[in-house]
Amino acid sequence: MTDLIWKIKNFAELTVPELYAIMKARIDVFVVEQECPYPDADQYDQKAIHLWAENKKGEVMAYCRIFGQNIKYRETSVGRVLTTSGCRGKNTGRQLMKFALETIENRFRTRNVRISAQDYLLEFYKSFGFEDTGKKYWEDQIPHTEMLRQ
Length: 150
Description:
Layout: E1 5-10, H1 16-33, E2 49-54, E3 60-67, E4 76-83, H2 92-108, E5 113-118, H3 122-126, E6 131-139, E7 142-149
Parallel strand pairs: 4-5
Antiparallel strand pairs: 1-2, 2-3, 3-4, 5-7, 6-7
C-alpha cells in the first residue's frame, strides 16, 4: 500500500494515541483474530524499538517491535510482527520485515537476528534468510519455531 505512513520510535517517544493504536492492532490480530488470550503488556515494550505503518486515519496496519542484543535473546530480535486484515496480501508484511532488518543492521551493526515464528509463517521468514533452529514449541496454543538469521 502506497498510502501508508511508516514510523519508528522507542517507547518514550510514542504518543498516547500511537501507543493506543499499536495496542489495539496487537489485540485485534493476536487476541481476537487468532483467539489467543495472552498477556500482551509484558514489560518489554519499554525496551523495544517500535516500527509500524499507519493509514491516514492513524490506524496501525502493520507493526513489529525490535530488540537489541541480550533483551529477549543473546542476538537482536523482532517480535509481535503483524499486518492487519486490511493490509494482507499487499506485500506490507514483506516491507515491514525489510525495514525491521535494515533497522537492526543500521542501529545494532549485526545481521544476527533470532525470532519466535508461528509455524505457518516459516517460509515467509526463510525468504529473509532465517533458518529453522530445530527448537519447536507451543506458545499460546499456536505452534512456533525458533529461527535464526546470521
